[in-house]
Amino acid sequence: MNYRHFTLLFLLLSCSCALALQPADPARFEKDIRAFEAADAAKAPPKAPVLFVGASNIRRWQSLPERFKKTPVLNRGFGGSQLRDVVHFVDRCVIKYHPRQIYLNAGGNDLHAGRTPEEVLASFEAFVNKVHEGLPGTPVAFISIPPSPARWDEVEQVKKANALIAEACAKQGVDFIEIFSLMLGADGKPRPELYVEDKLHFSEAGYDVVTSAIRWQKEILAFGKQDKQKAPPENPIVFTGSSSIRKWVTLESDFPELPVMNRGFGGSEVFDSFNYAHLTVIKYKPRLVVMYAGGNDIAGGKTPQRVFADFKAFVAKVHAALPECRITYISNAPNPSRWKMMAQMREASALIKEFTKTDKRLQFINVYPHMLGADGLPKPDIFVSDKLHMNAKGYAIWKEVVGPYLK
User: Fold this and answer.
1) Is residue 339 within 8 Å of residue 377, measured between CB atoms?
2) Residue 19: what pLDDT?
3) pLDDT value at 284 more than 50
């Protein structure tokens, strides 16, 4: 290749890259950005928020504050935008807020408009570079481009773009939140219930999946690292659920003759166990699964009926993959911290108890009466200082009550 040809090729590549980073139509979104600025003037945005930015699945996320109650969140999604539009407006819709964490979800509209996965990658890298320049040290997470029934013919491009961005995230220290596979059903197609009527945007059920992934992906991936350090037993008894499982640190020594595994993740809800059942349960091909979850659901505002529905979904998912697997549910435990919610928790347990009677593969363990004193209140000496989680005395009770069901 002579010098003239090399120069021409370099100019073509430079032009291509520049075009890839140009916004699709910045004037189209000026109104949206000015609306954000007007909202800021009317009411000061939270300081150091967790900021969500991107296209319409971010903009339409009205339940965002409710889902992250303990954290100040700020939604700066603008519908129809491409990733390169987010890059163009990053100073006005991201950097100015000095967020503590940034979640980005965009790229699908770029592909739908005919841009290549490589061009989407270039825009993503430009976004990260601008953020790192303007907000050094601020963590960025990319929520993967989701599948959608309305654009299923573009799925291979979506997969390629996600793969390129995931690789770039690994190199740049950016979290890649993988939701693509979580939104597919057993048939490999998008689950219809996760989308509204247009078959493009998320329903609240879809946002359940995204919320779960944001909260728990790191802990779930940590289980995989543990498996590499210590091979899991064959056909184990897997304990899964929330913090009362995770904090059962004596589980293996309590049942030394049994192949027990602890796959609890603290703060989780029944839906989270369903959402990640393939990675916390199914992959191990267990003989028995023991679940304790539901209290966080009720404390977070979910109804007993929702807890029951999520448990049934968990059972169906596990049995679809492992038809002979037994599943045991531990009743909600009474504790001083949530005593006012106990009626709802007991209702959820009652619904699940009746359901377990319909299938010989299901069991129900009632720990409730064993944790009460003579006065009918939770025994105060079996909890740690938060009056929610158990101490060694509490787990000694569970060992005696749960043990016979593991045989």
Assistant:
1) yes
2) 47
3) yes
Percentage of the chain exceeding pLDDT 90: 92
Phi then psi for residue 248, to 5 deg, are: -80, 75
Mean pLDDT of 360-386: 97
Is the same domain home to 205 and 259? no
Q: Report pLDDT for 21.
A: 52
Question: Amino acid identity of 117?
Answer: P
| Phi and psi, residue 241, nearest 5° | 135, -145
Dist. CA 253–CA 167, nearest whole Å: 40
- Residue 160 lies inside a defined structural domain of this protein: yes
Same domain, 212 and 237: no
Q: SS3 for 384?
A: coil
Q: How much of the chain exceeds pLDDT 70, in percent?
A: 94
The verdict on 253 and 207 lying in the same domain is: no
Tally the domains of the chain: 2
Q: Are residues 122 and 238 in the same domain?
A: no
Q: In the listed set 164, 182, 216, which residue is the last one of a domain according to the structure?
A: 216
CB 305 within 8 A of CB 285: no
The answer to whether residue 125 sits within a structural domain is yes
Write the DSSP string, 156-198: HHHHHHHHHHHHHHHHHT-EEE--TGGGB-TTSSB-GGGB-TT
Q: Which residues contact 94 (CB under 8 A, 6 or more apart)?
A: 51, 53, 76, 86, 102, 131
Angle at CA of residue 182, ends 287 and 110, nearest 5°: 165
Asked if residue 145 and residue 279 are part of one domain, the reply reads no
Contact yes or no for 368/397 (Cβ under 8 A): no
Q: Is 283 helix (H, G, I), strand (E, B) or coil?
A: helix
Query: Residues 105, 211: one domain?
Result: yes
* pLDDT tens by residue, 4-23: 544 444 444 444 444 455 66
In this structure, the chain runs to a length of: 407
So what's the pLDDT on residue 165?
A: 99
Instruction: Say which residue the tokens 């593991």 belong to.
Output: 406
Do residues 244 and 188 share a domain? no
- pTM for the full predicted model: 0.91
Do residues 152 and 190 touch, judged by C-beta distance below 8 A?
Answer: yes
What are the E-state strand segments in 190-286?
Answer: 237-241, 260-264
Say if 313 falls within a structural domain. yes
Angle between helices 304-321 and 342-356 in degrees, nearest 10: 30
Based on the fold, state whether residues 28 and 112 are members of the same structural domain: yes
Pairing of strands 73-77, 140-143: unpaired
In terms of residue numbers, what domain contains 309? 232-406
> Which CATH number is 382's domain given?
3.40.50.1110
